[in-house]
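Researcher: Go.
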Amino acid sequence: MVHNDVLRSVRYMLDISDKKVIEIIKLGGLEVPMADLVGYLKKDEEEGFVFCPDEVMAHFLDGLVIFKRGKDESRPPQPIEVPVTNNIILKKLRVAFELKEDDMHAILKAAEFPVSKPELSALFRKFGHTNYRPCGDQLLRNFLKGLTLRVRA
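Model: Structure:
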């Protein structure tokens, strides 16, 4: 899934301003100028659209975890994971919103995209594991839709 779509979805879900998105990215350890963010938040067909790079998305997701849960002073800062895959986005959202397996199933069911327990656990496996399964764009899109319904309810 295009990182710009994820950025727009999370921004809408949390009902936050552009300035707050910049603050969240800064929490993740990266400075992004407002002009760049405006380009990332535009739709594909709009003039001035700029693809959101993996590095910005990685810092945004790390910042989102800190924004939602607070900074864990007992752990050293983790290096960013690049490239950012749909599986990584799903993992980071799960951590940020403190979701358990049952919550994940409820969210996907609310989005009318039910997934079995083994399918869901396969998405959180490490790449290279025998049961690893890549997260598709449709699953991530429906997860974001269901999470938005839950957060904005």
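Model: Residues 99-151 form one domain.
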